[in-house]
Each structure stands twice: as C-alpha cells, then as structure tokens.
Write a structure and sequence with these properties.
- This protein is mainly alpha-helical.
- The chain has a domain at 336-387.
- The chain is built from 25 helices and no strands.
- α15 (249-261) runs antiparallel to α16.
- The chain starts with 10 loop residues before the first helix and ends with a helix.
- It binds one DNA strand of 10 nucleotides through residues 7, 9-10, 13, 168, 172, 203-204, 207-208, 210-211, 233-241, 244, 267-273, 275-276, 302-308, 310-311, 337, 339-340, 342-343, 345-347, 349-350, 374-376, 378-379, 382, 386.
Length: 454
DNA sequence: GTAGGGTTAG
C-alpha cells in the first residue's frame, strides 16, 4: 500500500509512526496533518498530554525538581535520603495534588514512587489522602512487592483509611501472584482492618479466587462460610462465571440449580455466562437452546448476551448467521449499544466484509442513535489499513479529528473552571451535548455537576 | 471486578 503506516490501531500509534519517520506526514491529507501538529504540541517532553498553564506552574516546577533528583536504580531509602538532603527539594512543601501526580508518573517504578511517598510522609504536617494510599498499594501490588505493600497497608490501618476497595485490590494482587492463601488470610483477618465479614466482603473474596481460576478453593471456602454468611444471587453468579472460566459447564449448570434452591432466580448474567462457555466450544446448538430456555423462563437476553454470541459466530466464520442473530436481536426490541457495534464492525472487518462494516458505521449506527467512540474509529481504521484502503482510513481520521477537538474544548473548559472562571450555562449545554455524542462519560458527569451548581 | 472489543508492535 502507498501508506507507510502498515498497522494502525490507534491515533497514538499513527502519531508515533509519524514521529519515527516524519516523511510519513507527507502521505497525509491536510486535515490529518493539522491533527498531527496539534497532537505534537499537546505532548510535552515528558509525554504529558496537554500543555500546563500558569496556574499549575508551581506544581510543574516542583515536579521537575523532584524528578530531576530521583534518578534511577536506587533503593527507595536512597531516594528518600537524597531528597531530604537536597536544598532545592527542601523548598518544596508536599501537597496531595503533587504526590498523586508523581505517583501517576512513577506507577511503573515502585522504588521512585515509594521514595517520594516516604519523603512526603517525612513532613510532620502532611498526611497522605486515602487516594494516594490506594495508589501506592496498587503500585506495589502490581509490581509484586508484597512485603512493602503489607507495610503500607499497616500504615493505612493505623490511620483508619482502609475500605473494602483497598482490601479488594490487595486480595486480587495476592491471587494474581498465585498466593491465593494470602488473599484468604486477609479475609480471615478482616476485623483487624475494622471491616465486617458479610455477604459483600465474602463475594469479593470468592470473586477474586474465581477470576484467578481458583474455583475449587473458592468452593471449599464457601462451603465453610455459608453457615454464617448468607449467599446472594451475586455469590452464585460469581461461581457460575468461575466454572465457565475453567470450562466446567456441568458445575455451572449445577450452580444454577443450587441458586434456585436458595430462592435466587437465575438472571440474564447467569445464563449469559453459560452461553459464553458454549460459545467458546462453538457449540451453537446448545447456545440456541439456552436462548430459547431464557425466553421460556421469562428472562430476556440482553445486548451483552447477543454481543457474546455474535462475536463467537463471527469468529467461527459464520457471518451470515451473525447477521441473522442481529435481526433476531432487533426483532425482540433489544437495542444495540456502542460496544455491540464495535464488535460487529471488528468482526465484519476480519471477515473482509468492508462494505458491510462501512454500512454499519455510516448507516446503522446513526440510525440507531448510537455514537461511535475511539474503539469504533480504531476498528474502522485498522480494517481499511489492513486492506490497503488508505482513502477510507483518512475519511475516518477526519471524523476523529472533529471529536479530538471536542476533547480540547473540554480541557479548556476544565482550565476555566479551575481558575474560577464560570462558563455560561449555554456553553456548558453545548459542550455537554457534544461530549455525550462521543461517549466522554466522565467529562459529561463533570459538566453536569457544574451545571447543577449554576 | 456477578456477564460483552480493541489482529499479532516492540
């Protein structure tokens, strides 16, 4: 193909390709060139996404001083020592904003993160927020430094900052490193953290174990616990998911019976899990049987159920059958969403059905009032690039450009709010509509909160 | 984190 971008999966990768070989940019139409130059200016040398205005200059200066001092390869104690003894650093007072920013930057470098974290704790008038503690626990857990993670957890306990969310993270990290017994131990010791052993916390433990395929262990623990903690529908769905995950569909069926025995009705989640299991086996006869059974049980399949089946059909190269399924879904009045269309477009692309994919993107989605998001664009661009249709890829890029502009608008909006410049109601309304159209849900939420105050 | 994407870049 004429384009020097053989595999394009995201805007970022296009951007990187252009940075790597600037001559690439000549292949791009004007609209995309404009886009790239705007992208280029909105990444500074540190890879931060947007330029920082004056209001955050102090913060930025502190970040620069600290990061210059931290260096690499030291232990966290060394980092702490060098920070404490540095004159320039001494002029900096830690703030929660500053610490969170640095923890974000060093999320893949636990020694630097912990060094900074301890440096802040060293200031007697500074206290870490719960958010910073959770971030620190997460960094150490992800890097599998379990001992240090335990130390931070202990500090949190002393400050009474531990929530079930914190515990859930810790459990999942243990189970993720195959130390499932430690996850169970945390649950056993829950009262140490001032938390209760109840259905909710039990479900967290069972879900953690099941997600890491320790389903039998979870089952044994549950058999003990159920005498004094009542299971609920979630509990059973967690097990159904677990059994399906390790491809033991018989046990999943058995769990359905068990949940009925407890007076819990199997729901669309229970059935969708089992359907997914049959989908993995490409046992579509059973899938259709289950769909019928759901209908008979007055438990309608939803868009997630249909997405699961549609993906599996497409993967099994049963494209026409996938189209029939979409029709069946529409006939039941089940509305497709963005994720469904993304999967559909992706599947059609892989099957070489470019025209069909284009039709879904251009006609079906707007008609259903479903907005594309970045993944939709990515699927379309990847497809066009794979089949060497650069014209099509650029068409999608053009559309993305418009929505990138919206992100910029939102960044400016946030800066205004930060500086206590109150936007007009009408400005908010315009931005909110636009932000909703392209699925920037978090942005929409922030704008809505502000609008309520107006 | 009780269920659904994102070719396989390095």
């Amino acid at each position: 193909m004429g384009l020097k971008l053989p595999k394009v999966t995201s805007m970022q990768s296009i951007y990187r390709a252009v940075v790597h070989d600037p001559s690439c940019i000549c292949c791009l139409p004007l609209a995309s060139r404009t886009l790239f130059s705007s992208l280029a200016t909105c990444h500074d040398a540190e890879g931060r996404e947007f330029p920082h205005r004056e209001q955050s200059q102090d913060l930025t200066r502190s970040v620069d001083i600290l990061t210059a001092k931290i260096g690499k390869g030291n232990s966290e104690e060394d980092i702490l020592r060098s920070l404490i003894s540095d004159e320039a650093v001494n002029g900096i007072h830690p703030s929660q904003n500053l610490i969170n920013r640095l923890l974000c930057r060093y999320k893949n470098d636990w020694k630097s993160a912990l060094g900074i974290f301890k440096w802040a704790s060293f200031h007697s008038n500074f206290k870490h927020s719960q958010e910073s503690y959770d971030m620190m626990v997460d960094i150490l857990g992800r890097m599998k430094v379990m001992e240090k993670m335990g130390e931070i957890l202990e500090e949190m306990r002393e400050e009474s900052l531990i929530t079930l969310d914190t515990i859930a993270k810790v459990m999942r990290r243990f189970a993720g490193t195959r130390q499932w017994k430690d996850a169970v131990r945390i649950f056993d010791d829950l009262q140490i953290f001032d938390l209760e052993k109840n259905t909710e916390s039990m479900n967290v433990l069972l879900d953690t174990l099941c997600k890491e395929k320790f389903v039998e262990q979870a089952r044994e623990i549950y058999v003990e616990l159920k005498h004094y903690i009542a299971p609920n529908a979630h509990t059973f769905n967690i097990f159904i998911h677990g059994w399906c995950k390790i491809r033991r569909v018989e046990e999943a069926h058995w769990t359905i019976q068990e949940m009925k025995g407890y007076g819990c009705r199997p729901c669309v989640i229970s059935y969708s899990n089992i359907i997914q299991c049959y989908c993995q086996e490409q046992n579509f006869d059973r899938v259709y049987e289950l769909l019928d059974e759901m209908q008979a049980q007055n438990c309608s399949p939803n868009v997630i159920t249909y997405t699961i089946i549609m993906c599996a059909l497409a993967k099994a190269k049963k494209i026409d059958e996938a189209f029939q399924l979409v029709e069946r879904m529409n006939s039941t009045g089940c509305k497709p969403d963005t994720l469904f269309y993304n999967s559909f477009i992706y599947a059609l692309g892989r099957a070489g059905r470019i025209d069909n994919a284009m039709h879904v993107f251009k006609v079906a989605m707007p008609k259903a009032g479903v907005a594309p998001n970045t993944s939709t664009y990515n699927s379309m661009i990847s497809m066009f690039c794979f089949y060497a249709q650069e014209e099509g890829a650029f068409g999608i890029l053009k559309e993305m450009e418009d929505s990138d502009r919206c992100k910029w608008a939102f960044v400016l909006f946030e800066e205004m709010v930060d500086q206590d410049i109150v936007p007009r109601y009408r400005t908010c309304r315009l931005l909110l509509d636009e932000v909703n159209r392209i699925n920037m849900y978090e942005a929409a939420e922030k704008i809505e909160i502000l609008m309520k105050k107006l």
